[in-house]
Specification:
This protein is an alpha/beta fold and about 400 residues long. Helices cover about 35% and strands about 20% of the residues. The radius of gyration is 20 Å and the shape is globular. The chain starts with a strand and ends with a strand. It comes from candidate division WOR-3 bacterium. Its EC number is 2.3.1.179. InterPro entries: 3-oxoacyl-ACP_synth-2, Beta-ketoacyl_synthase, Ketoacyl_synth_AS, Ketoacyl_synth_C, Ketoacyl_synth_N, PKS_Beta-ketoAc_synthase_dom, Thiolase-like.
């Protein structure tokens, strides 16, 4: 089987405009959650988010292109440019038809959709932009990245709610394994912060209402958690066939060795109460990588800060690890950057890759009153040094979608 490694990372989050800044602030336990600034929230019950402010896409993206793409696509191009530079890829020196793009998005161009719908209602159908559809559809981040670099490999989008980014990375792994590509640009992107979206999630009672202390609102595994905090951004990995990477003397972060994807078949928004789908996804990733649970030294949890998810994911981890469950460190990236929906799996994969590469893991912040049903080691005290042989990153989505990625140190 063709082996796949990570040779580049890129990200944009509420903590920083690049992967390294985001990573450093994660290690420091900084929160990127605050009162929303980009639009009026005075009449909304939820007024906080992990919002990216002062974003100027012109620093990387051509001005004419910016006007033709939604914010979620801007994030995807921005983070991809960083990842490509990080991987030191010269597309003129390789076969572009052997490079593909799979970037997941749970919602796509929601900002564009809302803006043009308002124009439709107030000004009539003739005022709707002819770019509405190509700016709105969820596959356009993948499409625009492919167009920008003139890449001819597999190119599409995965849409599986909050598991979209992880499913994209898993699919990209399979594309390289089966020989359809040598390099894949992959991850997740999302720009869901609009008045309409906040109202919708708030009406579901899915969001935290701690408007008076935003930095403490996302508190995975804590007894006082009251919902997740929405975020925006993008996380991108450059995946590459091992020998291809070695031939061009690429820096290798780690190997992507396993992927598991399952369904709960239970409920639109609630996870299976026995955690069976998440458990089977992790088992599938282990089997795919050819390792047992004793090799797992770290878990980057889905960890949403919702009452059901946190205790059920904990249950699934206990099923997987057995007696080792309380000895394996776990952390939730969402405690600091909120829930990026379709981009969550992408950014959390970047965090997992850097954890293995640097031998450090970030904390889960705001875990002040542990839930008795969440009784594992969630690293509440701060960042740790940790030699990681293998780590898994979990992503779970509305609709019962489960995805697990297994990364490990490169050996052999």
């Amino acid at each position: 089987m063709r082996r796949v490694v990570v040779t580049g990372v890129g990200a944009i989050t509420s903590l920083g405009f690049d992967a390294r800044t985001t990573w450093q602030k994660l290690l420091e336990g900084k929160s990127g959650i605050k009162r929303i600034e980009n639009f009026d929230v005075s009449d909304l019950s939820v007024q906080i988010a992990a919002e990216i402010t002062n974003f100027n896409p012109e620093k990387r993206i051509p001005f004419k292109l910016i006007k033709r793409i939604d914010r979620c696509t801007q994030f995807a191009l921005w983070a991809t440019m960083e990842a490509v530079e990080d991987a030191k890829i010269d597309f003129d020196g390789i076969d572009r038809k052997r490079v593909g793009v799979i970037i997941g998005s749970g919602i796509g161009g929601l900002i564009t959709l809302e803006r043009e719908h308002e124009k439709f209602l107030s000004q009539g159908p003739r005022r709707v932009s002819p770019l509405l559809i190509p700016m709105m559809i969820a596959d356009m981040p993948s499409g625009q990245v492919s167009i920008y670099y003139r890449l001819g490999g597999p190119n599409y989008c995965t849409v599986s709610a909050c598991a979209s980014g992880a499913h994209a990375i898993g699919d990209a792994l399979e594309m390289i394994r089966k020989g359809a590509a040598d390099i894949m640009i992959t991850g997740g992107t999302e720009a869901p912060l609009t008045r309409f979206a906040i109202a919708g999630f708030a009406q579901m009672r899915a969001l935290s209402t701690r408007n008076d202390e935003p930095e403490k609102a996302s508190r995975p595994f804590d007894k006082e958690r009251d919902g997740f905090v929405m975020g925006e951004g993008c996380g991108i990995l450059i995946l590459e066939e091992l020998e291809h990477a070695r031939r061009r003397k690429a820096r290798i972060y780690c190997e992507l060795a396993g992927y598991g994807a399952t369904g709960d078949g239970y409920h639109m928004t609630a996870p299976d109460p026995e955690g069976d789908g998440g458990y089977r996804g992790m088992v599938m990733a282990l089997d795919d990588a050819g390792v047992d649970s004793g090799s797992i030294d770290y878990i980057n949890a889905h960890g949403t800060s919702t009452p059901l998810n946190d205790k059920i994911e904990t249950l699934a981890i206990k099923k997987l690890l057995g007696e080792r469950a309380k000895k394996v460190p776990i952390s939730s990236t969402k405690s600091m950057i909120g829930h990026l929906l379709g981009a969550a799996g992408g950014v959390e994969a970047v965090a997992t890759v850097l954890s293995i590469y640097e031998g450090r893991i970030h904390p889960t912040i705001n875990l002040e009153n542990p839930d008795p049903e969440c009784d594992l080691d969630y690293c509440p005290e701060g960042a740790r040094q940790l030699n990681i042989r293998a780590a898994i990153s979990n992503s779970l989505g509305f609709g019962g979608h489960n995805a697990t990625l297994l990364f490990r140190k490169l050996e052999g």
